[in-house]
Structure formats: structure tokens, C-alpha cells
């Protein structure tokens, strides 16, 4: 492992061996790209035999899918929870951006792999991920629409605004490095303020 | 060629064969990744022999560098020209975002390759590109600072604001597709309005 991976990645994945393989795959995909990585590379990096990998994943693409689905499902769950916690659209949007941005900063290595290798997913798996993304984007649009209806937000185009909100957060994974000055939490708060202004909110 | 490439890519590159090789490399890198692409793949896609490739580029990394340097140098020149054309920081920022966003939408295939494969550049070439990015980011910070001094902008943190402005534009290359509804020009105008609000500008 050349880069640190947060310990709380995939707490839902069992057994440990499957999680170790996913972590090893993230490292390999991040350093040499998905296409140039073999299942043997992943197994070796996880300290296992290629045969042991196939016990958990039928193919290299299944490891990529597990990583990608987990990331997208947890993002969607975070957005759903945030909306459930905050009835006020301004509070919901602020907390959503704080969490979304901090998440992409903390998990930038995984998030980068997930973004870069999306096109490498087989068609059916790709659709599952696209569906999770659509649901997330649709929830963000709903918060913006509610805010516009309540008069808190003024947006010329809800779709473009929702895209910009998510885009700002996702792109954090591209440029963020552990050496970056603002911590994930501070960056999340700064971005939440920028997003609220972008949506025409004046405190 | 499976994806369309704008005809005006690399108008500065001579001879034609070098430009054809760069276009073929973009296609190959975009579809299978830099690491899994060979110089033979690139030459074949350009309808040339591997030996003919070496006449123009000493290595695969030299093709990637030519693509990446050209994209970054033209972006920097665009930002410099925009600032030279507009003394008012609000006008400068609006035009800058319009052009930056439209550029990343129009040239999303190339821009995506350039972003994804940045880490694949050899150390010295990487530094050249990082230097071009730093100069671009520094110019954006200067416009924001001038706007803050004139009272047109209010930003809590100039560095984070500049990063957000560029991040929004760069990430367009990730999600934009020719099927996307807003045209590059319209998207540029929408994003320019969002950015001006983000910087605390009220018209």
C-alpha cells in the first residue's frame, strides 16, 4: 500500500478478505489504471492467491463494481439521511454540501478510481451505478426546488444548478491531496457557503 | 476514430502527421487508458508505422506531454487574453468562466485524457504542466482579489474561491457529453452567472 486508505472504507463488506481485495484493487487501479491491472496484481497486493480472489469476485470488473456501487450507494444514503434530518432546504443544502465535500476529500483515492473507471464497468453494472447517481442528483434538484419555492433560493435553471453543486463536490477528489491546506471538514464548510450563495441565498 | 474530435485541436502543431498521432493517442488513451495503450496502437490508429511515430515523438509519454502541454498552454493564454481585454474584474471573470466552461465542454474528450493521465507524465514534464496550472490559478486569484478590492466581490477565502471557479469548469469535461442539453456556449453563460454569485457579486 503506497497511499493511506481510511479505515472506515466499506465497513459493510464481509468477509475481511473481500474488503482487503477491494482496498488492494483501489491501490492498483489508482497507480496503473484499471485496464493495465490484472486480477493477479490485485490478489498479490492483498497477500492472496489469484484463486482466492475468485472465491469473492468472479472477475476484475466485479471488484471495480463492488467499489463503485458501495461508494455511490453510501453517497445516496448520506444525501437521503441529510434531507430526512433537515426540513429546511437551506439547512439541508448546507449540511449536504459539507458532508459531500468532506467525503470526497477524505476518500479522494477511492473516489478518483470510481470516477475515472466508470466507463470500464460492464453495461449492466454501469446502469446500476448510473441509477444511483440519478437518484442522488434528483434529490439535490428537489432540495433546490423546495428552496426556490420557499423563496430562499433563486436559480435560473435547477438542473444546471444541481449539476454544479454535485460537480464542485465530486471534483474535490481530483485535486485534493493530504497536503492540501483546508482540512476536509473546513473545506466542506467553505464550499457550503459558496454553494448557498450560488443558489441565490443571502443570509 | 470512435468519438468526434473538434477540427481546431492543435492548430499550432506541425506537421500534420504529429497532429494525427496526437488525435489517435487521445482516442486510444480515452478508450483504454494510457498504461494499456502502446505506441503501436497509436501509430496504427493514425494509419502509420511505429517507426513513423518515433520520428515525431521519442516515447509514448512524449505524445501525452504534447497533448497535455498544448491544452494547458492554450488555457493559460485564453485566461491571459481575457484579463487583458477586460479591465473590470466582473467582466473579466464572466468572460473567463464563459470561455473556460465552453472550452471544457467542447473539448471534453481531450480534457478528460489530460486530467486523468496527469500522474502518468514523467517528473520533468509533470512540472511543466503543474507550472502552467499554477500560473492560470494565480491569474484567477488576481481577478478575484481585484474584485474584492473594488467591492464587487466578497469572498471569505480567495484561494478556495479560485479553486472552486476552476474546479467547476474542469469538471465539465467529466460529465459533459454531446447529448447534454445545454450547448457549450449556453452552459458557459449559466456557469458564469453561478460563479459571479458565488463570489458575492450582486448585479
Automatic annotation (TrEMBL), chains A, B:
Residues 38-57 bind DNA. InterPro entries: Homeodomain-like_sf (IPR009057), HTH-type_TetR-like_transc_reg (IPR050109), HTH_TetR (IPR001647), KstR2_TetR_C (IPR041490), Tet_transcr_reg_TetR-rel_C_sf (IPR036271). The keyword DNA-binding applies. Keywords: DNA-binding. It comes from the Bacteria. Pfam families: TetR_C_24, TetR_N. Residues 15-75 form the HTH tetR-type domain. This is TetR/AcrR family transcriptional regulator. It comes from Actinophytocola glycyrrhizae.
